[in-house]
């Protein structure tokens, strides 16, 4: 089997920092998910979206085929992209467990690359964040 290229868009946000927070994920052409995660920081919400995407990128792929998947993660958090690429160290103690979990999940794929994109190119994942936050606020 040839390598399968998959693109995931992730985003996270907190209204107030810290404040009510959520993440949004768009994987491929069909999978979209937004989830409220409670009161936390924007960066924790961003990492939570990344970890969720790494866990769920396998939708439609057998676990045995995961080693044949080239995943490209696109996100508008320059900090997290640079941390995942090893360009910045993770100094915040609250982010370290999420960073380590993401690194562990990456090993299941043939390759994972990280691309920093402008917010305007991350509209669908951002919309999932806001949908989750708005749904929570309406309760």
| Rg value | 14 Å
The number of strands is: 5
Q: What fold name goes in the CATH topology slot?
A: Nucleotidyltransferase, domain 5
Order of helices and strands: EEEHEHHEH
Per CATH, the architecture is 2-Layer Sandwich
Q: What level of helicity do the residues show?
A: 25-40%
Q: What count of structural domains? A: 1
Structural class of the secondary elements? alpha/beta
Give the low-pLDDT segments.
Answer: none
**Biggest sheet overview:** 5 strands, mixed
Question: CATH superfamily, called what?
Answer: Ribonuclease H-like superfamily/Ribonuclease H
The average pLDDT is 92
Q: Order of strands across the biggest sheet?
A: 3-2-1-4-5
Query: What proportion of the residues form beta strands (DSSP E)?
Result: 25-35%
Number of helices, where a helix is a run of at least 4 consecutive DSSP H or I residues: 4
How would you sum up the global shape? globular
CATH first level:
Alpha Beta
Distance between the termini: 47 Å
Please, could you describe this protein's structure?
The protein is α/β, with parallel strands linked by helices and 139 residues long. It has one domain: Ribonuclease H-like superfamily/Ribonuclease H (Nucleotidyltransferase, domain 5, 2-Layer Sandwich), CATH 3.30.420. Helices cover 35% and strands 31% of the residues. The chain contains four helices and five strands. The protein has a five-stranded mixed sheet. Helix 1 (42-56) runs parallel beside helix 3. The longest helix is centred in the middle third of the chain and has 15 residues, at 42-56. The radius of gyration is 14 Å and the shape is globular. The chain starts with a strand and ends with a helix. The mean pLDDT is 92.
């Amino acid at each position: 089997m040839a390598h399968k290229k998959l693109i995931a868009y992730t985003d996270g946000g907190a209204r107030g920092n810290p404040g009510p927070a959520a993440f949004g994920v768009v994987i491929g052409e069909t999978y979209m998910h937004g989830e409220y995660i409670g009161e936390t920081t924007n960066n924790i919400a961003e990492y939570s979206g990344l970890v969720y995407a790494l866990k769920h990128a396998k939708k439609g792929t057998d676990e045995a085929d995961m080693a044949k998947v080239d995943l490209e993660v696109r996100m508008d958090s320059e900090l997290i992209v640079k941390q995942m690429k090893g360009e910045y160290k993770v100094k915040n103690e609250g982010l370290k467990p999420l960073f380590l979990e993401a690194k562990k999940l990456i090993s299941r794929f043939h390759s994972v690359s990280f691309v920093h994109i402008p917010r305007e190119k991350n509209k669908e994942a951002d919309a999932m964040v806001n949908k989750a936050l708005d749904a929570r606020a309406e309760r």
